[in-house]
Write a structure and sequence with these properties.
Order of helices and strands: EEHEHHHEHEEEHEHEH
CATH superfamily: Vaccinia Virus protein VP39
CATH architecture: 3-Layer(aba) Sandwich
Helix content: 25-40%
Mean pLDDT: 88
Distance between the termini: 37 Å
Strand order of the largest sheet: 1-2-9-8-3-4-6-5-7
CATH class: Alpha Beta
Radius of gyration: 17 Å
Low-confidence stretches: none
CATH topology: Rossmann fold
Number of domains: 1
Strand content: 15-25%
Length: 254
């Protein structure tokens, strides 16, 4: 059963994204999301490992409070692409004509995501690299540093000129500060803010895989509304608490 919680201009759902997307009614102005990559390896055996094993180096770092297991990250390459095409097709019906879609991925899944993005019906318009700076981990000597992840972005049909800003930078440079993380694979708040700024003030932002709610926090900070979906009860509560805290801070500042 889907549960929901309304917090000011935000509505957060605890449930499966595929089910919630089918039931949403209000058109949204932008899809901004960071779905499970099902990455961290080149073969199925690698991808079947726990996210803690795939994305966090062994040692004390795995014990950090924000490093809590999450599901849906163990699909093989073909099933992952099919799954993305499925939920993006559902999302297309929720994004208004001309509305944005922005989806995170890494270098392994980038080719599959660009295909699934278009299979879902969105117009692919480009990539926004997220440069994690030289602080990003390097596998070992001889490797190029795994320094970037990517946002595949586009729209539901033609894109009209924005009246509230832009053009915006085509790359985001923001280091990961472990002390500020609320999720095992959470993105820095500054990265999410750089994306939601493309959506007009007062607009409605949708994140079907909200994790710890960083997209929602960024949206509220920008004076936007938010719909988020998360299937992990743990991260759902984290997201609700963060959105509530941000809303209180916003009200106190006005």
């Amino acid at each position: 059963m889907i549960q929901s919680r309304t917090i000011g201009p935000a509505t957060l759902y605890l449930g499966d994204a595929l089910q919630v997307l089918q039931e949403l009614q209000e058109p949204v102005d932008g899809l901004v999301t960071d779905p499970p990559y099902s990455s961290g390896g080149l073969v199925r055996g690698d991808r079947m490992q726990s996210p803690l094993s795939k994305y966090i180096q062994s040692g004390p770092a795995q014990q950090a409070a924000h490093n809590v297991h999450f599901g849906g990250d163990n699909r093989d390459a073909r099933s992952w692409a099919f799954w993305v095409s499925h939920w993006m097709t559902l999302a297309l019906a929720r994004v208004r004509p001309g509305g944005y879609a922005m989806v995170f991925t890494d270098w392994r899944q980038l080719p599959s995501l660009t295909d699934a993005f278009q299979a879902g019906g969105f117009v692919w318009r480009g990539l926004i690299p997220w440069d994690k700076t030289d602080s990003a981990r390097a596998p070992h000597k001889g490797y190029f540093r795994h320094q970037c992840e990517y946002v595949v972005w586009g729209t539901n049909g033609p894109l009209s000129p924005a009246t509230h800003g832009g053009p915006w930078p085509g790359m985001v440079r923001e280091r990961v500060n472990p002390r500020e993380k609320h999720h095992l694979t959470g993105k820095p708040l500054g990265v999410m803010d750089s994306l939601v700024q493309a959506i007009q003030p007062g607009g409605l932002v949708l994140d079907p895989f909200m994790g710890s709610g960083s997209t929602g926090v960024a949206a509220i900070r920008r004076g936007q509304r938010f719909i988020g979906v998360e299937q992990s009860p743990h991260y759902f509560e984290v997201a609700c608490n963060r959105v509530e805290d941000e809303l209180r801070a916003t009200i106190a500042a006005t």
